[in-house]
Design brief:
2 copies of one chain form a homodimer. The first copy, chain A, is of the alpha+beta class and 249 residues long. The first copy, chain A, contains 10 helices and 11 strands. The first copy, chain A, has a 4-stranded antiparallel sheet with strand order 1-8-3-6. A 4-stranded antiparallel sheet of chain A has the order 2-7-4-5.
Chain lengths: 249, 249
DNA sequence: CGCTGTGTTGACAGGTCTCAATATAAGTGG
DNA sequence: CCACTTATATTGAGACCTGTCAACACAGCG
């Protein structure tokens, strides 16, 4: 497979050679960014979207009162920065939490995809909807679940996403979030996160290692978290056939 | 203005006559649905998306333990059901909470928009991103704000959306959510919602009427809620010019 | 006129936060 | 390589917010 993050697009359509080439031409060269560096600041103008090729990143908002909310954890293969296409100014800061490599696409190139490769555009649209569902699941989770369940749901969410994009072991995963990151994601304090992490561990749901977490029994954890199982669509007919019927007729 | 919900699309591009006609041809006839009726059930197959022409609706998820989470309140002009394009089965139930009229669009017609009217597709994409931002704001709000602030943020969110799509009075709005709805939205109990509603009222932030809420001082409420002010993009160049450069060349 | 949906109020229990101290690991500069 | 600083994780005690349970008021509606 190529090193382009096309796999994320290819989850929903099978790109033709032309589509892949177009995408390849439009996107910029991969760029390395060190840990803790900002990829994009809250308030910057909106002119690029980013594909995360490798490493972990977060988008967060700093509030007037000094608190920080992490609104999304970005994993390899993800699309970053698309939501701000709806804004004049970036809403969030994008920061690398490990060394990362990214590739960027100008908003102009983004428009080109819509006119030249409608099937890719449809795939991007579906990805956006998938993200909406993820956010909705998080709202569901934040709403009324205990901190313990929320943490379990977060772990499983990252686990599932890592399983999709890389060939990793079945029962463990990399982990690059500090407890402060987790706290800012779940709306808890880092103090409490520490407690519930230990609790989850003492109950046998997880085993913690350096930069990694193992799951002795994923299914048990899943039942405990009460997170919905999502059955993502793959290559839906309406998207796959875009342009076909017309050009034939 | 037409009775089609094109205004929502027209927030981001100025549709040509052809684009408007295409959309008009693809969408179904308006349909009326009584209060409390389900527009779409959790688990149904995915073959339509809906435009809410009039009335209020909610999408919610019923959890195994009997709790209900409202993931979105739909107001007139909104697009409903797009997120499930990423799924094989509908993730949520769509229910009218007032009498509503809707117009539907098949997923096939949705594909046609991507091939025939890329600018409309781009507008739909931007709307999706806008929704993502709204969800992110809600996550921010749910995460660490007090119940009082969350309620204030919800009220302002609905207020701002109503201001966008209809010409209503500056200092008041219609309100069709019961306190149970609010509780299911904010992740609180209806008991507590009752308390904080009274508290918000006794502090002078709101005045409650039948099916309506008035805001004596919107800006004070906004400061209290601490919700971010969003500056939505309008007719961005990358979307407006889609297809132009190409056809000329 | 009774019924169901909705809103209000009170007392108590429980989860999470705050504040504070400490331990451990990870960098950094000499 | 060591000393120092910083980041991260852990633990405890008490306060506060919100949930639970229960009872009741009120309205709309058949």
């Amino acid at each position: 497979m190529d090193r382009v993050p096309l796999h994320r697009l290819a989850e929903f359509i099978d790109p033709t050679a032309e589509e892949a080439a177009l995408f390849e031409n439009l996107r910029g060269y991969p760029r390395s960014i060190p840990r803790r560096a900002a990829i994009r600041q809250q308030g910057d103008p909106v002119d690029q979207i980013y594909f995360l090729l490798d490493g972990w990143a977060i988008s967060f908002v700093d509030l007037p009162d000094g608190q920080r909310r992490i609104v999304k954890v970005h994993l390899p293969g993800g699309v970053m920065g698309a939501p701000r296409l709806a804004l004049n100014q970036a809403a969030e800061t994008l920061m690398a939490i490990t060394p990362v490599t990214i590739s960027s696409l100008s908003v102009h190139g983004f428009g080109t995809i819509f006119s030249e490769a409608p099937r890719l555009a449809a795939a991007l649209f579906i990805i956006a909807q998938q993200e909406r569902l993820n956010l909705k699941d998080r709202i569901t989770s934040l709403g009324r679940q205990s901190a313990l369940q929320r943490l379990a749901a977060l772990l499983l969410h990252v686990y599932d996403r890592l399983q999709l994009t890389s060939d990793v072991d079945q029962d463990k995963m990399d982990w690059h979030l500090t407890q402060q990151h987790v706290a800012d994601s779940l709306g808890l304090t880092s103090v409490h996160v520490s407690r519930i992490f230990r609790q989850l561990e003492s109950q046998g749901f997880i085993v913690r290692r350096k930069h990694g977490i193992a799951f002795p029994d994923v299914e048990a954890l899943r039942r405990f978290a009460g997170a919905p199982e999502r059955e993502w669509v793959r290559c839906p007919a309406w998207a796959a056939n875009i342009g076909r019927g017309k050009r034939a007729a």
